Amino acid sequence: MSFSPYGLLGLPMWGYFLVTFLTIETMFLGVTLYLHRDQSHGGLILHPALRHAFRFWLWFSSGAITKEWVAVHRCHHAHADQAGDPHSPVIFGVRRVLFEGFELYRAAARNPETLHAYGRGTPDDWLERHVYAARPYIGITLFSLLHLILFGVPGIIMIAVHLSAQPFFAGGVINGLGHAIGYRSFEMPSTATNLVPWALLLGGEELHNNHHAFPRSARFAVQRWELDIGWLFIRLFSALGLARVRWVAPRPHFERRRRELDSETVNALFTNRMHVLRAYARRVVLPVCRDLARHEPGSVPASAPKLLIRHPTLLAEEARRRLGELLEKYEVLRRVVEYREGLQQLWIGTPGNQAPALAQLREWCRRAEESGITALRDFAKGLPAYARG
Q: Is 255 within 8 Å of 387 (Cβ atoms)?
């Protein structure tokens, strides 16, 4: 009996592409649902059977060890784009993270201090100690042998594509480009961006800015026009009794008839604080910049809105200098920034100490409505409509 160079199955060309695509997508699904949303942040609770299915597949197809992946990822969040971040393009450069992201990950995963500080709560059963963590390369070896038996010579290319997918896309694209290009719905100290609004190919991980804004959320899509493919699988598994969602990022809920500020408003603003700051940028900062540009053509640089909206810790020295010049030259811009900082103070101590926060909110709104800045006045008048939903 002769061995076929195309293995036991002998698929057509499209069949090899399909199998490779499905094995990679299943791996990405395991990364985003099991390693990321379930193990790292706990916003999703997978059924033990599904949890172990993903744990096995990740060991079998990529050699991933749960504790290492979780520890490195939690460390990334704890030090996002600051000293100690294991794979920030701000520190290492986009090119290095994109093409050497796996090497950076391995260096962090070998650090016992990182594993001890950030790897707690991950599986520590007999299988983990004696099989998965003890022999991570056995899985990849078996995966490769199975491909060669089933698909023959084409299996060599399939193996190469599969084994390079996670280091490049998860380790390079998300950690590299996901902190360099794309759009930012929410401003925060991290440089994280959303690569695309329709996150279909990497399990939803493309919505990286949303994830950094709401790390515990089991759903990465926040805006109503965004799509998180991982969330669709979560809904399916939930319907089958194989998953339970613990927390999702809030979406603003409005009761337009409300006109009075009360403790419910304070709670709603605290819950939706990232959305409130986003709305402030769109409804106050941008209109004020446009109005100033109309009254003084050519005097306000096109970069002014970005300088005002960008989180201060992310501005380079030259950008901070230009921002300082703008605020010194235009009182209205300085007041817009001061009011934003005052607004952020509202949820310090909230919701545990509501009475002072409510008094502070009422005073902030009174001053905003009397500021003479139309956009700021209108924004303040709209705050009572926020509700927790």
A: yes
